[in-house]
């Protein structure tokens, strides 16, 4: 008998640990994100030097020399300051782009899912078409010919990530449309826009948030890759991707040049992913649409 | 053969340990059928799964024994117990379609279950599969082997599951609500199969169900469970005729039945409250908090009393012969019947359907390739809804009941025919008129869990239609409180979110929301079928009260004929998109004129002249010519295949109409069995 | 293996038809497969090749005597008729329009006719005096025209006549050559050569570090330091014929003002940039667009010194005492180190109050800007242009007023340049060039920066000299003693 | 009360109406056919999964996607003017540019050029590449084998590792075997490929000297880029597979399988893992796009002569026709892969066939 009771306790312990662990995952993720994002936001206050102030007499200085904690780059600019500032472009671009993509995806997805018919067909096909061009390639085409600026970068990243949001929101909206509580609203003569706002939006939100975290990390990678391929923002604006590209030839002399921005990006991505996983766990466990509580 | 002694099963959840089964003792002999009944969540499934060794990962048997043929399964090593169970216990589940692997063909799923010696050759295995499928009455078993689960109807899938369960010649069959998801007619077929197998193979059957009538009809013995414990066991006839535990008595009172007389007259006797939380069950008698007869000693655990005839119960204040007397005393608020009897003219048709059709396109042709598939959900229905009546619509699954409901409230537009409200066509109206129409007709949904937005507080759900009617915030709030009170929701409840409510409370919210716009017609599509008997009784009473107080007209859709008989004045019987018979409730139930109505009634458990309607409903994509019911009708002739019967009046006795070439005369009664 | 050579080149080599023009690397490969009438050797001297001798009997007449017995790989002899046919094709606008772009524009406008006088003599009649005509011919090899007729598909071979023949052709990855048995001269020292395409600077660096290539060009100057410690490599740079300069959009204020143009020349500390970014591989330009490799290099001119005070003074006298804002475009990644250089220059201009808005462009967009409308161009642009033939005319042509950026402030420049095109003797030519460079210097028509260093890393087992025009030919290499 | 006799009797009335498209209700012509000569029919547990309609529908969508991709790219490329500038080089005169603009037809209206382009594209006659001076489609097609090799191997490795780790994470015997590989792979997902590529070269080519820094030709050239590409694919496959296994483990049909007395391994493989593959395969379809994107970076990093690098080079050199051809080929490839994915899913999941 005692073995059976032991089993019960073991089960209970495991359950507790799982809950604890997934909570920890979220906290670690948020901590990592904060660790990168906060210094980047407050770069003007924290950074010891201007990211563009060059000193041609002290190029490629090693770490901890001459007041440069991470050393200097090829133009004698303080690497730490550049890493701090270098996160601003990716963060601004990706946040704005994901926000934009989410709004577009949610609006189109809800409309297409709710209305169905040719509108749905048209938007869905457009999303399919968009998806058939790999997003980096599409971004390259757009940037090479529109030139890269903050706005074009944002648009290009948003263009690449709205289909994911759209598809998910649309699929959810299609099943929501058949939900009795939505039909009840229809029967209660609630206008379509109100149904979308009051019933669809809150119910698709969890998935939207989870998808947005996925787009966030994909977007960060694309911005970095674009910078790396030389299609990022103008080169005197520090940007992690471009910094890695410029630093990669200096690995022998000053490996920090490529690795420092790379690690900053890595920590941010890791944080975003952990938070995303955690949110996904959270929401599917709660399963807002699932029966019961 | 099977002896369960003081079995306890715990489930570990985030909220705590649920004692789903608590010191339960049972026994079952070969060839015997033991029914296990009780409200939802009382531990029936967990008990069955403990025996079958299929508990969820978080669950485990913590004490007691399960002795199968003299071997205690709880004490055997894991592998040995598993082997023993696989050999001796077959299990079938509630939802047959999802219990089959959607990815694998029927054949390969049966083959997997065969004994190794039956699997030595492919052809041999196939033959064995076919044999099994034949045994459970699957037509053309060879053709089924390559079918996939989603291509099977519920009845067929359940037969396949039984075939799988029988693959190793078990001695014990555990059937967990095997027919809850099925129609009455299919339910009867499946239970017939189980009955036959029981006698042919000497199977012992543990039948889990919440349908008392079904257990009463089929089982030899019954065990009534409440909150993880067995409240009462005994011979079926004895227990149901003479329930001793107050809980059993309450359950029996709560269920409206087709066969008991005097329906439409009295209120149902509901059990108040909800079953206790099994992670912290109340001390003493677990039913005490809901029991109208509880007294101080009920807070200690009642002893199990065993009578000579094997009838056991655990109650301090058994019902016994006192039942009749007390039930009146128990329900002081019994009200006399509301309206006038259903005879005579009830008023103007408020709403009418004439020759209404609804076709769904299932798949279109693509660039001229493939076939277009259309499904006729409603195929020419004419029906009047009279002011102040309760019209019942009954029929098997898929016959178009819900579609009619949706046409009535405007969720679907007819593809043919017209829907008129107050004599005005609805379909062609402009937006404003549409809104007015919709506000006159409201819908109550089947599923209390899905009919409320989980992200919204319930008072906002109720208020929603009012807000968009242009109500002022303050007035709306007051109205919501009034409505909530009217449907019997306590004050604080409206501030909660749906997941904090019980099923019954949610259904009350759903009704309040439908009433918010002060409609004339309330369409209730299976409004109580997802609820436990006890809750169902409460909601049915509520609906009746509302009708009386507000003068509502009901369109009441249900596949539960007992409920329909209790609620409705007039009934329309549907078969495959058409109405085959209409008439006053009493006439329909006592003297059905259409063979299908008769067959439907015959399939209801508890019918003395039990009979089973064979076959399944034909496809709505390609309905049979002439009379649609002819493929399953024993009276069908050549004429039925060639000519479509028209509605003709039924003589005398409250009248009504029937669409049959050979309507049954009153004296004929039910022609089957 | 001792007899094999691997050369890393920074551009794809997409086309082996000499009528195409993509890069000096492509020309290097072509010049080893096909013989031209003349050739420029690794000491940058004009030497005979298919022609054994030539003369210039009249300013507009050139006569070439061909080598006897030279054949293509498949045995077809190369005669005066072959040469004439080739040049007729070069001259035919419609035949070459799609592939040549403007690569043959000078031939098409300046060659009036070609005559095969006999089997081994060809005569060119020009429309103008062209003193460097023979040098120009070095970049126009003679090929088998049936190869062109058959679709000039390099994957099927090239029917070579030069020291090497084509073994395999993969334009973005590797081109493999082997010694051509049909070649008339000494067989080359390396019998097998691979040109490996390494488009990114990082790829070139790592390939050199891993000794995957024997010779590699166009490394980032700063990267050389990483290789200097490698005892197996010789690393260094030659001053190339490409000169970095900033091209003012002189049609637009304030660059129509000479003081401003001068001020900027004083404001930039070129020595600091060459010392750090270029790692000392080059030195500030001598106040002109020409440098040593050009025949007309003007030794009289001196560099503009770095003098902030003077710059400020000039800005003030130019009417911009508080500095001004300017846009500065550049072809990102097109020249070694350009992205860093512009940032350094911009920062230094910022020090004197000139606020620079950098505008990186792709090479293609940048080229279109240079050829578009001056009003749409940026205020200034960074360039490092060079003519294919390292000739003065080619270089000086860029600064005539027909070019977008120099809507001329100096009509005299155009006049002098027109005279240069008509110069009949070397002396006259040299004199005009000197005058032109002087004017450019005095006018501060450009912000002169420095010549790009043509960096290289060569395995010590290979003996090879890198010429200033970047032609990198395997037959110029030999195993080191 | 014999149901078989009953139904067949009824259905004999019904023969003409029996719809062939609804297999569950197929009606035999002779009531007893079903039970004769079973052996001759062999094993009938499987049916051909693909209908013509299914295929045509998918193909149509696929073609639509390719057309759309081409259109988007065509207009994106042509919005910014003529590429003649690049062709003429830096020392051409204005009249030369004008002449070539006419020569190449860039003076025609955009719509006309679009129509001509579509017409030519239909026949495989893409405009000539400005750098390679031959049919740009041919130039791209020549690069296909290299890209296929690289992406194929990368995907294969990624999928293998992803499935392995996902399975282990769901079913590992010990706690560490469930967590450690998954944790590693989740961290790997966060490493930016550009950084990883740079670090891989630093370690394996420069420090250890085991592998070449780039280029193509030997199997050694493949190792680093393939590793890099597989890092794109493996983590999300592992995660989705794990999640899918976990959610499938609670499905009703798994309980049925357990009730049959199947071994735990059998239940896991056949009833859980195999069913859990369906979303993974969907994901692989999506991943092909990511891999192709990744190939752009990877090929550039390792000087791999594939379509990815070709398209970047073409873009930087403003070789419009070549860009169009590359994007077209990539889109076609992507669409074809997804066509296969759809078909494969239909094979795996009979329910998907009806959609
Ligand atoms: N997987 C599970 N995890 C946690 N609790 C569970 C689980 N399954 C059942 N329970 C709890 O165990 C108790 C008994 O559930 P069980 O399913 O046996 O009830 P039931 O009588 O079969 O009900 P129903 O008629 O709804 O099928 C309930 O309180 C239920 O909430
Ligand atoms: N939106 C739809 N698209 C396609 N077919 C539909 C749709 N709605 C209903 N049907 C089909 O129409 C027929 C009638 O459906 P309906 O829901 O009205 O039946 P029902 O009598 O309410 O059945 P149940 O008792 O199962 O609820 C069924 O065959 C159903 O499959
Ligand atoms: Mg249950
Ligand atoms: Mg229904």
From TrEMBL, chain A:
<keyword id="KW-0812">Transmembrane</keyword>
<dbReference type="Pfam" id="PF00528">
    <property type="entry name" value="BPD_transp_1"/>
</dbReference>
<feature type="transmembrane region" description="Helical">
    <location>
        <begin position="91"/>
        <end position="116"/>
    </location>
</feature>
<keyword id="KW-0472">Membrane</keyword>
<comment type="similarity">
    <text>Belongs to the binding-protein-dependent transport system permease family.</text>
</comment>
<dbReference type="GO" id="GO:0015833">
    <property type="term" value="P:peptide transport"/>
</dbReference>
<keyword id="KW-1133">Transmembrane helix</keyword>
<feature type="domain" description="ABC transmembrane type-1">
    <location>
        <begin position="87"/>
        <end position="276"/>
    </location>
</feature>
<keyword id="KW-0653">Protein transport</keyword>
<dbReference type="InterPro" id="IPR035906">
    <property type="entry name" value="MetI-like_sf"/>
</dbReference>
<keyword id="KW-0813">Transport</keyword>
<feature type="transmembrane region" description="Helical">
    <location>
        <begin position="20"/>
        <end position="47"/>
    </location>
</feature>
<feature type="transmembrane region" description="Helical">
    <location>
        <begin position="208"/>
        <end position="233"/>
    </location>
</feature>
<dbReference type="GO" id="GO:0015031">
    <property type="term" value="P:protein transport"/>
</dbReference>
<feature type="transmembrane region" description="Helical">
    <location>
        <begin position="254"/>
        <end position="275"/>
    </location>
</feature>
TrEMBL record, chain B:
<keyword id="KW-0813">Transport</keyword>
<dbReference type="Pfam" id="PF00005">
    <property type="entry name" value="ABC_tran"/>
</dbReference>
<dbReference type="InterPro" id="IPR003439">
    <property type="entry name" value="ABC_transporter-like_ATP-bd"/>
</dbReference>
<dbReference type="GO" id="GO:0015833">
    <property type="term" value="P:peptide transport"/>
</dbReference>
<dbReference type="Pfam" id="PF08352">
    <property type="entry name" value="oligo_HPY"/>
</dbReference>
<dbReference type="GO" id="GO:0005886">
    <property type="term" value="C:plasma membrane"/>
</dbReference>
<dbReference type="InterPro" id="IPR003593">
    <property type="entry name" value="AAA+_ATPase"/>
</dbReference>
<feature type="domain" description="ABC transporter">
    <location>
        <begin position="356"/>
        <end position="601"/>
    </location>
</feature>
<dbReference type="GO" id="GO:0055085">
    <property type="term" value="P:transmembrane transport"/>
</dbReference>
<dbReference type="GO" id="GO:0016887">
    <property type="term" value="F:ATP hydrolysis activity"/>
</dbReference>
<dbReference type="InterPro" id="IPR017871">
    <property type="entry name" value="ABC_transporter-like_CS"/>
</dbReference>
<dbReference type="InterPro" id="IPR050319">
    <property type="entry name" value="ABC_transp_ATP-bind"/>
</dbReference>
<comment type="similarity">
    <text>Belongs to the ABC transporter superfamily.</text>
</comment>
<dbReference type="InterPro" id="IPR027417">
    <property type="entry name" value="P-loop_NTPase"/>
</dbReference>
<protein>
    <submittedName>
        <fullName>ABC transporter ATP-binding protein</fullName>
    </submittedName>
</protein>
Automatic annotation (TrEMBL), chain D:
<feature type="transmembrane region" description="Helical">
    <location>
        <begin position="50"/>
        <end position="77"/>
    </location>
</feature>
<comment type="similarity">
    <text>Belongs to the binding-protein-dependent transport system permease family.</text>
</comment>
<keyword id="KW-0813">Transport</keyword>
<dbReference type="InterPro" id="IPR000515">
    <property type="entry name" value="MetI-like"/>
</dbReference>
<keyword id="KW-1133">Transmembrane helix</keyword>
<feature type="transmembrane region" description="Helical">
    <location>
        <begin position="272"/>
        <end position="302"/>
    </location>
</feature>
<keyword id="KW-0472">Membrane</keyword>
<dbReference type="GO" id="GO:0005886">
    <property type="term" value="C:plasma membrane"/>
</dbReference>
<keyword id="KW-1003">Cell membrane</keyword>
<dbReference type="Pfam" id="PF00528">
    <property type="entry name" value="BPD_transp_1"/>
</dbReference>
<feature type="transmembrane region" description="Helical">
    <location>
        <begin position="222"/>
        <end position="241"/>
    </location>
</feature>
<dbReference type="InterPro" id="IPR035906">
    <property type="entry name" value="MetI-like_sf"/>
</dbReference>
<keyword id="KW-0812">Transmembrane</keyword>
<feature type="region of interest" description="Disordered">
    <location>
        <begin position="9"/>
        <end position="44"/>
    </location>
</feature>
<feature type="transmembrane region" description="Helical">
    <location>
        <begin position="144"/>
        <end position="170"/>
    </location>
</feature>
